[in-house]
Design a protein that fits this description.
The structure is a single chain. The protein has 221 residues and is α+β, with helices and mostly antiparallel strands. The chain is built from five helices and 13 strands. It has two domains: 72 residues, no CATH class; 114 residues, Proliferating Cell Nuclear Antigen, CATH 3.70.10. Strand 12 and strand 13 form a beta hairpin. The longest helix is centred in the middle third of the chain and has 14 residues.
Length: 221
């Protein structure tokens, strides 16, 4: 039987539900209606049935739990369309940038075959009633590394990203808009749902701005 107290002590900061599967996987997640975060690790403990535990009550074995396992396996086994690596230094630098500008989201995207990240405060753009001007746009854009990537475009919440330990990761982008952060330092894999939010555009180019513009008045009769 699973040692619930030990599991809560080790993984309780990630969520309050623990799903122990028959193939010795342990999934950790929360019950928030907008939660977008699931952790997977190996648990060297056999179980005859898929079992769901929480941090308060006992365990549950039911058809609902079996359906949950099927859903988790399906969503975390989609086709990989792109992958890249992030170092612990890069992870920490992104966290520091989030704290500096009070960012709510990070968008990872490929540009000129390089990996870029923008950090921005989405709430500010939604609630700001002033006209959009560059001084209101707290956006930080970084070129993360020189890895060759062509098919990256996803956004995750800062509150989710802050839960990820600052270690080295292999990142995989799934076809179903789920992103995997596989730790290269320990046996943890973080699955995050793409929020599909893009930062507002604050820089644009208009070719007319470089030309002389003449105002043609209506001729008098």
């Amino acid at each position: 039987m699973i040692n619930r107290k030990l599991i809560i002590k080790k993984f309780g900061s990630f969520g309050r539900f623990f799903l122990h599967t028959k193939n010795q996987d342990l999934y950790i997640f929360d019950d928030s209606s907008n939660d977008d975060f699931v952790i997977k690790t190996k648990l060297n403990l056999l179980t005859k049935e898929h079992t769901l535990y929480d941090d308060v009550s006992g365990s549950e074995n039911s058809k609902r739990v079996n359906d949950l396992v099927k859903s988790l396996i399906s969503q975390t086994s989609s086709s990989v369309i792109e992958e890249f690596n992030l170092s612990s230094t890069q992870i920490q630098a992104l966290k520091d940038t989030l704290n500096l500008i009070q960012g709510t989201h990070l968008r990872f995207f490929s540009n000129d075959n390089k990996l870029n990240v923008t950090v921005f405060n989405y709430r500010q753009y939604v609630h700001d009633t002033n006209p959009i001007s560059e001084q209101h746009m707290f956006i930080s854009e970084l070129i993360v590394n020189d890895q060759f990537v062509t098919n990256v475009d996803f956004t995750i919440r800062s509150s989710t990203f802050s839960k990820i330990p600052s270690t080295d990761y292999q990142v995989e982008c799934f076809e179903n808009k789920v992103i995997s952060f596989l730790s290269l330092d320990d046996d943890l894999e973080f699955f995050i749902r793409d929020q599909m939010i893009q930062e507002p555009v604050i820089r644009f180019f208009n070719e007319q701005l470089e030309k002389e513009i003449v105002l043609l008045l209506q001729p008098k009769t």
